[in-house]
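tool_call: predict_structure(chain=1)
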Amino acid sequence: MSARPLDGLKVLDFTHVLAGPFATRILGDMGADVVKINSASRAQGANTPDHPYYLMWNRNKRALALDMAQPGARELGRRLAQQADVVVDNFSVGVLDRWGMGYDAVSAVNPGVIYVQMSGMGEGGPWSDFVTYAPTIHALAGLTHLTGVPGREDIGIGYSYNDHQAGLHGAVAILAALAARQRSGKGQRVDVSQFEVGVNFAGPSLLDYFVNGHKARAVGNRLPYDAAVPHNVYRCAPRQVSSVGEERWLAIACMDDRQWQHLQQVLGNPDWCRAPGLDSAAGRVAAEQEIDRQLSAWCADQDAYELMARLQAAGVPAGVVQDGADLMERDPQLGRGPFVQPLDDPHPVAGVTWVDKLPIHFDVMPCDRYTRVRTLGEDNQAVLADWLDMDAGEVGSMTEEGILK
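tool_result:
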């Protein structure tokens, strides 16, 4: 069995819902021994081991049930943290410190340990105790305002974009801290503010405001800072599903004059696209509504996939608006892998589960091994034996005391 980049790395995972579990899932995919801490009292909603969210973000981890309301569990948590390379949580700031197993306490015994705190607002500041989920972070960070359409600034992104990005930032923070530890021999505490992650994505809008005094506005599919037309999504001929016609849409983005010229050729050089001024970006921006109207009429009776292929072959950026069924059942690019695959080991409750592969391909150390999500406490014995050399009798006693539940 080939080695993976993070084989041997011990990660103690106190995360929940999406952002934190996504960060540690990346580490697990790369070979780290990620021990997922959960408990019967916390296994509710998205933290339930057979919930779709939990199944999605907690593969390639081992499960340890630890009731942190018990003093004995907190002591066991401290012992585990003293053996860990990395401890990750996305509780409100200070929870691990209150449990007596925060960075200051543990690093005195384990100076190489890395603590990554992935709270909603980060440590300090008047909002540090805020409870946050994707809609609230998106709103506070300005993403909801920026990603709406004109006149509907309430629409927003519609899925947990910032959680995914915070997870990526968390994984990068861990890898950077590990690289720093190789040089210094010391660990450190890292604070990742999911709010600040979201604000980062508003960078151009912030610069425009501070430099030019322009307030950002919702622009839909238009580009706020580039002169590029067409740059929109157009309805194509519906696809028949049984007796129902299913809408199909195609995105077309001409970013320069050459791509516009290629589009003209695919269109057959009709009179309307040879109108004065359309040979320049500024002229096309001025005629945006007319261009969109003409392209909408042209696309309306064409198959979206066939048209995408023709445009791409001509050098025009185009992409079908795909749904989940398209991606999993019809997409030839993902299907060559395949990108999504069922696991041979069925989940005891959910049955056969599927994984979307790590989208990073290592030539020397392939990351192509996936294990199903574990049930609550399924790996108690194995984890405590591997990390703390505990025998079955000790684990049994802790189970009877209610520590491992």
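agent: The chain has a mean pLDDT of 93. Proceeding to next step.
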